[in-house]
Each structure stands twice: as structure tokens, then as C-alpha cells.
Specification:
Blueprint lengths: L2 E3 L3 H11 L12 E6 L21 H11 L9 H10 L7 E4 L2 H9 L7 E7 H5 L4 H10 L6 H7 L3 H6 L8 E4 L6 H5 L2 E6 L6 H7 L4 E6 L1 H13 L4 H4 L3 H12 L31
Parallel strand pairs: 1-7
Antiparallel strand pairs: 2-4, 3-6, 4-7, 5-6
Helix pairs in contact: 4-11
């Protein structure tokens, strides 16, 4: 995937709209899902892969023990419900966070590191799902759905071993599914999750193999400031996307950090918000 550098909010807005016109027409429901990275040099590596070493070998242990110790917060019967809950709370998983909303993705691309270039990517989820094994494609067609639910996935893959077996003898495939509405954060962020049929396969590899299904835009620091201003004017802020006291504190930290865009000193200073835990801004949609 080749990312295009934009020079203004208007150019970025028009590029996003054009990317959603897969057949040249404007549709009410776009098939694009988005991710925003606050630094263009960040990778799309999963939280599980960031453990390094033989991380695939510990995946089942992480999930088993998370389910054992988090039983009081049971999200639903399916393994995929537990994976979504774990990802939501920072458990290292093979999942990646996405959103249907380019504005939400842009928030996480611009909320920190104001002096750094940001990156926004979009993937055609319908195009990605056309590459799925036949049983999964048939399930989507039968339901008339764009994305999977956790229940739909569990019908074909009750566990990750079964999920991985669906991809045997073929390149790893990419599945997008909507998590349960665990809380208002999931709802307000229009959250979408993705999973590969291999714990060791990463998004960069998939993007390189399927350049026609993805678009990317580099947002220079000076444009990042303009985008951030537009988002704040539209109330796309931590107070909305991260409901509760944590989101309020994040919003106030950013707003009053010297050198931040909101503080009125442009995008050239060093923002305290940029020093936060990097896992939030290396592909995670929330804290």
C-alpha cells in the first residue's frame, strides 16, 4: 500500500470520500474501515506480536487465564466475545482495532504527538471478505451482512485452532467483525475488530499483498493541527469517544498541555500527551 501525503483537511476529506466510491458512485453505507496512527512510523503489529519471542505459543495461555480471572465480567458465550473483551482492556491478542468512522480514526491519529506526521489507512472490508474460505463467505451471504458477529464466527470457528485450520493450504485471510457493545466506548467509536488466520501474520504483510484493497494517507504535522482543530469543532474528542472520567482527564490533559494544538502554540512544541503509553497509539482505538 502506497500512502499519499495530503496538504490540507479539504484534500484529506475529499480523498476519503473518493476512496469510498469503489464503483464510482456514492453509497449510503461505505464498506471501508479505518485505522489512525499518531506517528506515521508506527507499525500495525498486533498486541500479541509486540510481546516478541515465541509469542504465538503463549496466545492460548493468555486467553485461558483471562477467561479464568475475568469470569465476573463475562461478555458472552463465544470465544470471540472473550477476545473482544480482552482486546478492549489491553490484553495482548492477535486482534487489531478499526472503526467505521474516519473521524474517529483521525482522532486517534491527531490526539498526540502534534509535532509528528500521522497516518490514516482504510481497507475495503467487503473486498477482504471476498478472499475468505467458502464457508465464511457463504455465512456472510446468507445473513446479507458486511461484517461478522461473534456468533457467526463461532459457528465456523469455536476456537482459534479451528479458525486457523480454515486457512490451511492458503495464504492467511483477514476477517472483520463487530464486537459486542461492551460499553459506551465501543458504541461511540463505531468499533470494528479484525483477525488473521495466523497469529504470526501481520497487517503490513497483508497490505503489501493486496494493495488494491487499501488506501493510506500521511498527514504532515502542519496538516495534523488543522485536522485536530476540525475534529474538536465537531466534538470528536476524548470526552465523547472515551466516556467517563478517564476520557475527561485525557481531554483536559491534551487541551492544557503546553505545545498542544488546543493550547494555542501550534504543532511544534512537545506535548505531554505524546508521552502516554504507546500501546494506545500504535493501533489501539482506546485506552
Amino acid at each position: 500500500m502506497k500512502a499519499v501525503t495530503v496538504s490540507s483537511w479539504r484534500e484529506l476529506d475529499e480523498a476519503i470520500g473518493e476512496a469510498g466510491r469503489s464503483d464510482g458512485a456514492l453509497h449510503a453505507h461505505s464498506t471501508l474501515v479505518f485505522r489512525g496512527l499518531s506517528r506515521s512510523g508506527y507499525s500495525h503489529m498486533s498486541g500479541l506480536a509486540r510481546l516478541q519471542g515465541d509469542y504465538a505459543a503463549v496466545e492460548s495461555h493468555l486467553i485461558r487465564n483471562f477467561r479464568k480471572y475475568a469470569h465476573r465480567a463475562a461478555p458472552g458465550p463465544a470465544l470471540w466475545d472473550w477476545l473482544a473483551l480482552g482486546q478492549h482492556h489491553g490484553l495482548p491478542t492477535r486482534l487489531l482495532d478499526w472503526t467505521f468512522s474516519p473521524l474517529v480514526a483521525l482522532h486517534f491519529a491527531t490526539a498526540t504527538w502534534p509535532e509528528e506526521d500521522a497516518l490514516l489507512i482504510a481497507v475495503d472490508s467487503a473486498g477482504a471478505h471476498r478472499l475468505l474460505p467458502e464457508p465464511l463467505r457463504a455465512s456472510l451471504q446468507e445473513e446479507g451482512a458486511l461484517l461478522f458477529t461473534t456468533e457467526m464466527l463461532s459457528q465456523h470457528a469455536p476456537d482459534l485452532c479451528a479458525f486457523d485450520r480454515l486457512g490451511e493450504g492458503r495464504p492467511p485471510f483477514l476477517v472483520f467483525f463487530e464486537p459486542p457493545s461492551l460499553d459506551e466506548r465501543v458504541v461511540n467509536q463505531s468499533s470494528v475488530l479484525s483477525a488473521f488466520s495466523s497469529a504470526t501474520y501481520q497487517l503490513e504483510e497483508w497490505l503489501a499483498d493486496h494493495p488494491g484493497l487499501a488506501s493510506g494517507w500521511v498527514i504532515p504535522a502542519e496538516v495534523k493541527a488543522e485536522v485536530r482543530q476540525r475534529l474538536d469543532q465537531a466534538n470528536i474528542t476524548e470526552r465523547v469517544l472515551l466516556p467517563g472520567l478517564d476520557g475527561l482527564a485525557d481531554w483536559l490533559r491534551r487541551y492544557y498541555s503546553p505545545g498542544s494544538i488546543a493550547y494555542g502554540e501550534g504543532a511544534g512544541g512537545s506535548s505531554m500527551a505524546g508521552q502516554e503509553d504507546s500501546r494506545r497509539h500504535e493501533g489501539r482505538m482506546g485506552p
